[in-house]
Amino acid sequence: MDYSRLFKLSDDICYLNHAAVSPWPLATCEAVQRFAEENARFGSRHYPRWLETEQRLRDQLRDLIHATGSDEIALLKSTSEGLSVVAHGLPWQSGDNLVIPDSEFPSNRIVWESLREQGVEIRYADLATADPEQAILALCDARTRLVSVSSVQYASGLRLDLQRLGEFCAAQDIRFCVDAIQSLGALPFDVQQVQADFVVADGHKWLLGPEGLALFYCRTERIPELTLHQYGWHMVEAVGDFDRSDWRPADSARRFECGSPNMLGIHALHASLSVILDIGLDNIAAAIAAKIQRLTSAIQSHADRYTLLSPTDPARRAGILTFTTREGDNQQLFQHLQRVGIQCAERGGGIRFSPHFYTPDDCIDYALEHVAGAPTL
What we know:
Layout: E1 14-15, H1 26-42, H2 47-65, E2 73-76, H3 79-87, E3 97-101, H4 107-113, E4 121-125, H5 132-137, E5 144-150, H6 162-172, E6 175-179, H7 191-194, E7 198-202, E8 214-218, H8 263-279, H9 281-301, E9 306-308, E10 321-325, H10 330-339, E11 342-343, E12 345-347, E13 350-353, H11 361-372
Helix pairs in contact: 1-8, 2-8, 3-4, 9-11
């Protein structure tokens, strides 16, 4: 099926940068236009209807990750905010430690490193091994309070075995946090199977939504464990009862939403998720896998010029393929690709391609043609 009809990308762009910021589907663009027109004409007159869209989004996110209920879902501003809620909400003691991979995006590194002032040790696992999960688990001991990983590494595209990590953490009473921004929308995700305590992901990558609105999942029994550091009218149990003085935090994950909801972002992400859930994550994952395999085979066929930095094992891949030139400067290659309309990224010492399910075959062909025909740099 030609899914590209669901988008309206310019004819002069080959978009291979979904691991950074994705273009919106047509349905999302139209939803934002309708919301803007309604707001311009009626202001907040239809706010109750907006709240219905907000609840539908929570339900979509619940279904997306197989949470037990939408009460475990909070809508936050970003991945970094969600991780910060966990990092500065857990009850740390001096001498505790946590484990993260050594190649994480700054969102899943800086927030944990900020805990050093509380006496928390940060342990970095080297994933450049045959068994990256064991490299993580080997650093855990009796003082390990948390393991936090990205489901897919942003630079190499390495996909971790989250179920294995989650089973270990559950058995050892270690909290397990997953930054899923590089997999939600590209791969099926089952938080029950993974046994994650916390899952965080902004909507602007594989979920095809806007920046500024993120999923924050908190397992029901972990909600009371996180000390609150942000307060406001929206995080109380009796939300909307503005004259009540005997307030208390909401029992649900809404307690982590201190202020007014991002209604524009809510309408946009709801529309994007409608597209994704209608097509189905299994179909999306299969389409992405086929495109990544084509790219992988092509780069490997030019081993004299390029080195593949991403995994070749399909079980270790998602939607990211990164390679480096043997001939010289990656930046010059990147600039060449940009000049011919190929939107990609420089990451992890190489060039990163990240197609989505709808990426046309002729876009893949075009990119490979210009990789193969790139001038010697």
